[in-house]
Design brief:
disordered C terminus, single chain, mainly alpha, 226 residues, 8 helices, Cytochrome Bc1 Complex, Chain D, domain 2
Length: 226
């Protein structure tokens, strides 16, 4: 009886050791590290909090080197709703011949614009056309335009240059704005040192004597008359 009990206990212990060993081996085989960044990256989408991104410059900076031919390639995304032909018919969106300089949301082609866009006011310029192409929904909340926008400023500049070329009187593209250069570290240190020296010199200079009764005041004490 004792021999049978020992045999059963031995096999039970052996089975437990085998199971433990198998779990250790499986754990090592299928071990996975937690990824440094959760989720899946989407091409063309940049996190707003991502550091090191260069601040976007005014659209005039990108227009100075804009390429109308490249803009035509980007504009192909828009041809399902728009055309740029002179005298072309409206489609889902308005004809865009001569759009630069037109009244925003009014147009000259008889298109029925939404109140959200027609209520913006002003005329289409380099700046507001860039803002519209960046995000129509932000530029005119409630607009019927469903296009998500162009996040790349050079793409927008190229499209604007393309639209500008489709006009009876294309406007000259603006020059890049002049950027103010930040003072070099050495120049700033020299300027600070010069300012400090000027301040010390001013402190050492004697104050101008005060005038009293038309004459200069002195430190002498008048003797009483006898």
């Amino acid at each position: 009886m004792d021999d049978r009990f020992n045999t059963i206990a031995g096999w039970t212990l052996f089975a437990g050791i085998v199971a433990l060993g198998a779990s250790i081996v499986a754990g090592e085989s299928f071990h996975g590290e937690r990824p440094e960044h959760m989720g899946y990256p989407i091409e063309g989408v940049v996190e707003e909090s991502a550091g090191g991104a260069e601040a976007e410059k005014p659209i005039e900076f990108y227009l100075a080197s804009a390429d109308s031919a490249k803009g035509e390639e980007v504009f192909k995304k828009c041809t399902a709703c728009h055309n740029t032909d002179k005298g072309g018919a409206n489609a889902l969106g308005p004809n865009l011949w001569g759009v630069l300089g037109e009244e925003v949301g009014k147009g000259a082609h008889g298109f029925a614009f939404s109140p959200a866009l027609s209520g913006v006011g002003g005329t289409w310029s380099w700046d507001n056309l860039s803002k519209w192409l960046t995000s129509p929904k932000k530029f005119a909340p409630g607009t019927k335009m469903t296009f998500a926008g162009l996040s790349n400023p050079q793409d927008r500049a190229n499209v604007i240059a393309f639209l500008n070329s489709h006009s009876d009187a294309p406007k000259p593209l603006p020059a890049a704005p002049v950027e103010a250069a930040a003072p070099a570290a050495g120049d700033k240190a020299a300027a600070d040192k010069s300012a400090a020296a000027e301040g010390g010199k001013a402190e050492k200079e004697p104050a101008a004597p005060l005038k009293q009764g038309g004459g200069e005041a002195t430190n002498q004490v008048e003797k009483p008359a006898h």
